[in-house]
Design brief:
The protein is 42% helix and 12% strand. The protein is an alpha+beta fold and 96 residues long. It is globular.
């Protein structure tokens, strides 16, 4: 999936909103491993440092949990929190 990132707004907030939207829509379950920082960076066309910032903020918002050596997973109770859209509107999907 390709996204239109608006570079006039904070990129990490737009990506965090997109991931929160995916969580709210049920794309992930608590058993699923979420994309790594490198995978997230590639998916959105952003720097890995920005992707790491996104993951840090999602963790702080209690939407995800990071397990050293295993990966990143959906936190318990994350779906209701994600539906509150704590990061603002997600970027628009670009049609190919």
């Amino acid at each position: 999936m390709t996204y239109d990132i608006d570079r006039t707004y904070l990129v990490w907030q737009q990506v965090a909103a997109a991931v929160a939207h995916q969580i709210a829509q049920g794309r992930y379950t608590t058993a699923d491993r979420l994309p790594s920082v490198a995978e997230l960076a590639a998916e959105f066309g952003i720097a890995t440092s920005t992707a790491d910032k996104v993951m840090g903020h999602l963790k702080d918002a209690r939407l995800i949990r990071r397990v050293k050596g295993l990966g990143t997973f959906l936190a318990e109770g994350a779906v209701p929190l994600a539906k509150q859209q704590p990061f603002g509107p997600p970027p628009r999907h670009r049609r190919r």
